[in-house]
Design goal:
Helix content: 55-70%
Strand order of the largest sheet: 1-2-3-4
Shape: globular
Oligomer: single chain
Structural class: alpha+beta
Length: about 160
């Protein structure tokens, strides 16, 4: 239940944020939040992370659907009885759904979180991207914290 609530909460927050940006800020416009560090900027991303694979929306949509299905089918093996993995899976699923809705409905993803560190401009991203990264990070922490002789890998399989 936690995973489902987290997934829908993230997807909803992501879509509400993107809607607010799309309807109130012209494409390319930027609002400084913290001078020389953080802006809200309306960006369209036709690719994946950092604009890689730009213009491959159909393939990225199919990849999103495949990953969503695999994570759902393999959720028991993925979670492996580790509570943190429930959070990780909920974050990843919510992020995938949030960006997939944009890809299907708009043929691009709205990005709006825009950070600068000195001369470095970090590529813009959104709530869904953040959730996916947090989910992967939590999963990695759980995997590295798990005792090497737990034996879960021998019994893990997809349904």
């Amino acid at each position: 239940m936690l995973m489902l609530l987290l997934c829908f909460g993230i997807a909803l927050a992501d879509q509400v944020g993107k809607y607010a940006i799309r309807t109130s800020l012209p494409l390319g416009a930027s609002i400084p939040v913290i001078d020389n560090f953080f802006n809200i900027t309306h960006v369209r991303n036709t690719g994946a992370a950092w604009g890689m694979l730009g213009g491959f929306n159909t393939w990225l949509t199919l990849l999103s659907i495949i990953m969503l299905v695999l994570l759902i089918l393999c959720r028991r093996a993925f979670i492996g009885g580790i509570a943190m993995n429930r959070w990780a899976l909920g974050c990843m699923l919510g992020g995938i759904v949030g960006n997939m809705v944009d890809r299907i409905r708009l043929t691009f993803v709205i990005d709006f979180l825009d950070f600068h560190l000195g001369r470095y401009h970090f590529p813009s991203f959104n709530i869904a991207d953040t959730a996916i990264c947090v989910g992967v990070g939590l999963y990695m922490l759980a995997v590295f914290a798990k005792p090497a002789n737990s034996g879960d890998a021998d019994t893990a399989h997809c349904n």
